[in-house]
Amino acid sequence: EYTNSDNPFGDAHLLESFVWHKKREKDGEQHLKEEEMRRREKLRQHEAKEREHEKQTREEERETLQREKEADSFKEWEEQEDQFHLEQAKLRLKLRIQDGR
């Protein structure tokens, strides 16, 4: 395990959390206290989790709708198949009657 004084990177601040000072300045956050920064970061993470959850929910709904659509399509195909076999049976019966069998 590394320490601030004993690490192969020569980093005296290795164990501290990295802060993008230029980014904080750009975002106008350089005046905020560390506590407020942590609170905002937690809020960002929470919002990201919510967005991910919403995305997953939408995807599940889309998949459910797709399965329902496929089931309806299969049911329609099955009905057409049954109708075709019924028509074929009627046609065979009609031909047998015509042939006198």
Automatic annotation (TrEMBL):
One of its GO terms (cellular component) is spliceosomal complex. InterPro entries: Cactin_central. It comes from the Eukaryota. Pfam families: Cactin_mid. Residues 25-80 are annotated as: Disordered. GO terms for biological process: mRNA cis splicing, via spliceosome. Residues 67-101 form the Splicing factor cactin central domain. This is Splicing factor cactin central domain-containing protein. It comes from Desmophyllum pertusum.
